[in-house]
Amino acid sequence: MCSASDGGRSPEAAGTDERRRRRVLWSLPTGLYVIGSRADRRWNLMTASWVTQVATEPTLIGVGVEATALTHELIAAGGIFAVSLLPRAERTLVRSFVKPASAVAVDPRTGRGTIQGAAVHAERTGAPVLDVAAAWLDCELRHTVALGSHSWFVGEVVDAAFGPAGEGLPILRMEDTRMHYGG
User: 170: cis peptide before it, omega within 30°?
Assistant: First the structure.
């Protein structure tokens, strides 16, 4: 028998509804990005899918970051982040950044080095940007909104550019990989 609290659905129906909800949420068109963060001499890169422009004047970018993630800690402490937009050809690279970086070799004076073996450089804010990025956005933190499991960090874009290959490279999207997140 079903109770009023579950809408009268059986446990099997509730499980089917949950699976359907996840599949629909996974169907939302989503980019796949790498967020660079830094606080003092601590650096990290993190794969992320929740990135969007939220205002034009000033130009603000929002990124969703899990509250328990190292990137969350570094953005909150350092007040900066960068978003690397990757070319589709780099689809395997994003898997290197699904866990906190364990191999960081960045010169704090120059901002050049490697994280998880990937070449990085720092731009205006000092947050790491992947050298292979098709484009990047360098941001200073302006707002933080706690949203349960995640926080929404809103940064003002203080610098942006296309990578060495120039404008026009197809940008990596979630559907270009077998990765799923959210739901």
Answer: no
Q: Report the 3 state secondary structure along 57-88.
A: CCEEEEEEEECCCHHHHHHHHHCEEEEEECEH
Are residues 106 and 148 located together in one domain of the fold? yes
Task: Examine residue 167 and state whether it is found in any structural domain, yes or no.
Answer: yes
Write the pLDDT tens digit of every residue in 25-68: 766 667 889 999 999 999 999 999 899 999 999 999 999 999 99
Residue 65 forms beta bridges with which residues? 151
Question: How many angstroms separate the CA atoms of 141 and 64, rounded?
Answer: 13
Q: Are residues 113 and 78 in the same domain?
A: yes
Both 3 and 71 in a single domain? no
Shared domain for 96 and 112, answered yes or no, is: yes
Structure tokens at 24: 């629909």
| Bridge-based pairing state of the strands 104-106 and 113-115 | antiparallel
State the DSSP H helix or E strand holding residue 161, giving kind and residue range, or none if neither: strand 150-162
pTM score of the predicted model:
0.84
Domain that includes residue 168, residue range? 31-174
* Strand 33-39 relative to strand 80-85, pairing: antiparallel
Angle of CA points 133, 167, 86, to nearest 5°: 25
The contacts of residue 147 (CB under 8 Å, 6+ apart) are 64
